[in-house]
């Protein structure tokens, strides 16, 4: 009933693509959110290196183990302030969109970034000017996604220009395309003051733009030293039974990524969900 996904880099000490496939299967998961550079930093995953043969290799290898790449990650600072660096980043994303189908992936995923090169916090991220700049960037990427029939999956976060349900809705109104999807991570939208409202945030997001939600990040959290700190599912405060019920109501079989749930904790999380 739940279409669970793990990030490949949430499995530790992975040495080869074959090893990643084996370990994914061993924890009982059949879908990956695959970040080439995070899982295999020694492999060149730049726009110059990406190619159909690489995609087909990973697709066929994972298929032998009954695993598919659900999301292809290309998390980058899409609004990098240096125009030369930004162009490199956007070109790489467009290359991933071009070749995603060779990997067997239906979408390429990223957050929006920051006006600071190091992705740090800045009040400027929340300005209308920066948001308008973001809209132009997403329009460009979505046009590429339309050409290659690959979804652009965008994730919101408190410190980014796409910082709320309201801003996300504005983006969707500004960029009207079947190839723009939203990856909903409610833990990215809470503070220590609002964390108890996380179920309400999920409900509101589905009511406001549920048809555009293409994947969900289920990321448990603790509060430590006045901060939201991610943890494995079932070890924190997130009301995952209520959230999973909402997902099932609005988006049956939606990809649910167990983000930050690692190694043997993946098997535990899967068992907790199976009991619901």
Point out poorly predicted stretches: none
Number of domains: 1
Helix content: 40-55%
Shape verdict: globular
CATH fold type: TIM Barrel
Secondary-structure-derived class: alpha/beta
Let me know the number of strands. 10
Q: What is the name of the CATH class?
A: Alpha Beta
Residues in β-strands, percent: 15-25%
As laid out across the biggest beta sheet, the strand order is 1-2-3-4-5-6-7-10
Folded structure, characterized:
The chain is an alpha/beta fold and 276 residues long. The protein has one domain: Divalent-metal-dependent TIM barrel enzymes (TIM Barrel), CATH 3.20.20.150. Helices cover 41% and strands 17% of the residues. The chain has nine helices and ten strands. The chain has helices at residues 17-26, 36-39, 52-64, 83-103, 128-148, 165-174, 198-209, 240-250, 264-274, and strands spanning 3-7, 31-34, 68-73, 107-111, 151-155, 180-184, 213-217, 220-224, 227-231, 255-257. The protein has an eight-stranded parallel barrel with strand order 1-2-3-4-5-6-7-10, surrounded by four helices. α7 (198-209) links the parallel β6 (180-184) and β7 (213-217).
Notable traits:
two-stranded antiparallel sheet, alpha/beta, TIM Barrel, single chain, 17% strand, 276 residues, 41% helix, 9 helices, 10 strands
């Amino acid at each position: 009933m739940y279409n669970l996904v793990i990030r490949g880099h949430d499995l530790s000490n992975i040495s080869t693509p074959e090893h990643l496939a084996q370990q994914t299967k061993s924890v009982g998961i059949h879908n990956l959110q695959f970040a080439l550079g995070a899982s295999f930093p020694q492999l060149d995953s730049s726009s110059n290196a990406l190619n159909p043969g690489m995609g087909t290799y990973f697709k066929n290898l994972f298929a032998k183990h009954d695993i598919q790449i659900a999301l292809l990650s290309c998390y980058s600072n899409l609004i990098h302030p240096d125009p030369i660096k930004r162009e490199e980043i956007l070109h790489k994303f467009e290359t991933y969109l071009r070749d995603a189908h060779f990997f067997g992936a239906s979408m390429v995923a990223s957050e929006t970034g920051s006006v600071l090169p190091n992705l740090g916090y800045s009040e400027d991220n929340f300005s209308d000017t920066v948001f308008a700049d973001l809209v132009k960037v997403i329009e460009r990427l979505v046009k590429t996604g339309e050409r290659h029939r690959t979804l652009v999956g965008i994730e919101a976060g408190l410190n980014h220009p796409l910082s709320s349900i309201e801003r996300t809705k504005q983006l969707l109104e500004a960029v009207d395309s079947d190839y723009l999807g939203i990856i909903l991570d409610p833990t990215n939208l809470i503070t220590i003051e609002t964390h108890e409202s996380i179920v309400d945030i999920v409900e509101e997001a589905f009511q406001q733009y549920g048809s555009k939600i293409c994947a969900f990040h289920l990321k448990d959290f603790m509060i430590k030293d006045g901060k939201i700190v991610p943890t494995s599912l079932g070890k924190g405060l997130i009301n995952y039974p209520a959230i999973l019920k909402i997902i099932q109501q609005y988006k049956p079989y939606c990809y649910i990524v167990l983000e930050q749930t690692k190694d043997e904790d993946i098997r535990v999380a899967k068992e907790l969900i199976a009991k619901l």
